[in-house]
Design a protein that fits this description.
302 residues; mainly alpha; Farnesyl Diphosphate Synthase; two-stranded antiparallel sheet
Length: 302
């Protein structure tokens, strides 16, 4: 077992212990909903923490806190959209009811704070860390509200509004561990650059997610959830604004690639391992698919 695999196993044990130590969460400790993801956030935390020479115990605390916040956001998203499946598993609200899902999501957020407060770091670091969590949660909620109120009719501002919405909703929590790692390592000058990199890549990932939903290929889902729920899917928005599907795919691909290129350029001024993380872990994860030649007629929203 290599060092990263060992650390990821420690991370899962820490998360399971968090569930089992709480009388309410213990009932969910074996639910596959929480353990069937790709653990991309854990891998990022481990690699980035190593690049900034953060002790492994602290890295695992950051990763565990981040994962709990991410799980909370997924539970709430599924509840808002009334999606019944994620990653091939029944969603929490579908399995246990809407009221319990809302409460479990809220409880996971509180547990993320608890991990930060109990971590073996200085009191000053805990203040910075919990402030970062608070800011990220506030931003994610703001982005979720912006998603519900998204104006898809102003053609000039579609990309600008989409970036603002996605960088808040998806990006804030995605950038959170990178910000925390830079702050804990006292590399204050790197915080803004890392923040922009991870916001850009979060928006790039949201675009990939939109494409999967548009094509009906999203893992563990049936059909287009965005279309059913009226969510701002960039592919639906552009094709509904008289853009052909072929042109839409090229246009969005160019936009996503510009976000990636900007991130890679910013990473050049950071520790070398940051570029490695981007090129070997994150960029392959967000890569878009070409438009299938056999699937030129795709669903459009009304």
């Amino acid at each position: 077992m290599d060092l990263k695999t060992s650390a990821l196993s420690r991370l899962e044990r820490q998360l399971r212990a968090c569930f089992l130590s709480d009388s309410t969460l213990a009932d969910f400790s074996d639910d596959p909903y929480f353990w069937s993801g790709q653990n991309i956030r854990g891998k990022i935390c481990l690699d980035l923490g190593a690049a900034y020479e953060i002790p492994e115990d602290t890295i695992l605390d950051i990763a565990a806190s981040t994962q709990l916040l991410h799980d909370a956001s997924l539970i709430h998203d599924d509840l808002i959209d009334e999606d019944t499946k994620r990653r091939g598993c029944a969603t929490i609200w579908k399995k246990y009811g809407k009221a319990k899902a809302l409460l479990i999501g809220d409880l996971l957020i509180s547990k993320a704070y608890e991990i930060a407060i109990d971590s073996k770091v200085s009191d000053a670091t805990k203040v910075h860390w919990t402030s970062e969590i608070s800011a990220a949660v506030s931003s994610a909620v703001s982005g979720a509200v912006a998603e519900l109120e998204f104006d898809a009719h102003n053609k000039r501002l579609i990309l600008e509004n989409y970036y603002r919405m996605a960088s808040r909703k998806t990006g804030a929590l995605f950038a959170l561990p990178a910000r925390c790692i830079a702050l804990i390592s006292n590399q204050i000058g790197d915080v803004d650059r890392l923040n922009t990199i991870f916001l850009n890549l979060a928006v790039a990932y949201q675009i990939k997610d939109d494409q999967s939903d548009f094509l009906g290929t999203k893992s563990g889902r049936e059909g287009s959830s965005d279309l059913k729920n009226g969510r701002p899917n960039l592919y639906h928005i552009l094709t509904n604004n008289s853009m052909s599907t072929d042109k839409c795919f090229d246009y969005i691909n160019d936009y996503q690639q510009s976000l990636v290129a900007d991130s890679v350029q910013l990473a050049d001024s950071l520790p070398n391992q940051v570029c490695v993380i981007l090129k070997e872990l994150l960029i392959p994860f967000i890569e878009l698919k070409p438009l299938p030649s056999s699937n030129r007629k795709l669903p459009v929203s009304s």
